[in-house]
Design brief:
- The chain is built from six helices and five strands, in the order H-H-H-H-E-E-E-H-H-E-E.
- It has about 180 residues and is of the alpha+beta class.
- It has one domain.
- It has a five-stranded mixed β-sheet, with helices on both faces.
- The longest helix has 24 residues.
Length: about 180
């Protein structure tokens, strides 16, 4: 099994691997890599949702798997490819957060992802309303999970600024993001 000597080497390896794996000239990837860190720092939920929607829209339909694990892997990989330090299943006293992003020495983003499986296309206003409701319910569940399980606790204990992010995906590319205080 290949092991890297330390965290810095591991992160550099992962970042360069994903930058090589993704086409840097791809307009979706380059926008994500350039704009995502700033959107996260500014807690710009609309921008983060749009970047991931565009990225997911660029993936061939045959490559989508209707599972939370699939979208967790896509989110994790995309954050890594954007050059961010990313940890999946970060343990705390009451459970494991889906993803933790270390923006710098003192800022952490705790992310909880919820997936709403749906094969129904949005055709009518009622369909759009249903979709928005499903995404809102998923965001509420993600936010409740972060708070109930106190995923921000270990980072607060380390005197970090903690940003919480609920992340919901419906179908293949409908994305909703909500930033909130722990």
């Amino acid at each position: 099994m290949f092991r890297t000597p330390n965290v810095e080497v591991d992160l550099n390896y992962q970042s360069s691997f994903f930058k090589d794996a993704f086409d840097p000239d791809d307009k979706y990837f380059s926008a994500l890599a350039e704009e995502l860190p700033g959107a996260l720092m500014k807690k710009n939920s609309d921008k983060v949702a749009m970047l991931f929607h565009d990225l997911l829209s660029s993936i061939a339909s045959e490559q989508h798997a209707a599972s939370e694990q699939h979208y967790h892997a896509v989110l994790h990989s995309s954050l890594l490819a954007a050059g961010l330090e990313v940890h999946s299943q970060e343990s705390g006293a009451r459970g494991r957060s889906d993803i933790a992003v270390f923006l710098n020495d003192k800022i952490r983003i705790v992310i909880e992802l919820k997936y709403c499986k749906s094969n129904k296309k949005i055709v009518t206003a009622a369909d759009e309303e249903r979709s928005n409701k499903e995404l809102t319910v998923a965001l509420n569940k993600a936010q409740k999970t972060i708070r109930d399980k106190d995923y921000a606790g270990p980072f607060r204990a380390a005197r970090c600024v903690v940003i919480c992010m609920a992340f919901a995906i419906r179908g293949r590319d409908e994305v909703a993001v909500r930033f909130f205080e722990p």
